[in-house]
Amino acid sequence: VRERKVPAVAPAAMEAREPLRELCGALRAVLARVREGEPGEGREPFELPRFWDALGQTFKVTSQEATKLSLAFSRLPLTSAEDCRKLSEDVQNAVLAVATVYYWLPKGQGTTLRKMVRDATTEVVEGMIQLTETILSAPLESLSQEQLISTGGVWEACEQVSNLPRDNQAAVASALAACLGVVKDALEEMERALVEGQDPYSDIMEDEELGFRGNRDTYWSEADRKLLSSCMGLMKASKACLKKVLGVVKAYGKADSPEQIAQLDDLADIANEISPSVDELALSMYPPMNQLAVRLNAAKLASVLKKVLEITKTSHVCPPSEEGWVQFLTGAVDHNMNKIKNFTQGQL
User: Cyclin-D1-binding protein 1-like C-terminal domain location, by residue (predicted)?
Assistant: First the structure.
């Protein structure tokens, strides 16, 4: 088998790539601005439909520019320095247009919506940086697997615009649904652990020399199990709470006035604290269990749930017909928390 000689990179080819290096730097500057920058507030009347049309258009153009850039560096003859400069300029302009349109979206349209649009915009810019870097590090005349993957990554990021929620009500519903998914997973995992977590050493005779089974760390005692059932009650209340809040946001949530938009953001912000609090409680429930840590984590979760229910009750998403379940779940949280306090009283 004859060895294939890797052609030396000609100075002209190196020069042709110089604009790509500059492009990388320019795109990084855009990325930093998108991540940290503030929106332009109300220079002219803001129209949501016009914003979405413009954003969709800029994402589409960026996707096309990624294709052009990738193709130019996937075959011979090599792209000239002039063509490369033109390609780089087009890419930079497309990405700047995406960032500029993102800046049109005022905070008044909702911080939850704005964060989702910012994340989508960031992904497009990051994708383009990655593609440019991949081309710079690849052999000159071949389309590498990495380059194909990077190009596909930009396409996917650009297609995301069609799935973005169109107003803050939809954005908050989407955020709540994501939280609910995480809490459901944590609850199922804990339920499995409880089923599998019978004393795994119960069929082993006591260690003759030690006089007891040494591995106390891998199973729950009777006292632990009593405490666990109330903790599970609190986790189930978290799931029920998110499910109900998501239901009323979908049914009654509106994003027509600044007050409604702000109320929805408040709900999303506090609901975002549920899943990390559920995770912390779940982690502290595994053996060997420190009952005091469990009590503290349970109290934190209970406090977050009470806040979510309070904010829901005082917002426009909760008409009088929905107040019953708010009351019921508040009672369920208190009931489980009181039991946890009783079981752990001796630990204080």
Answer: 206-310
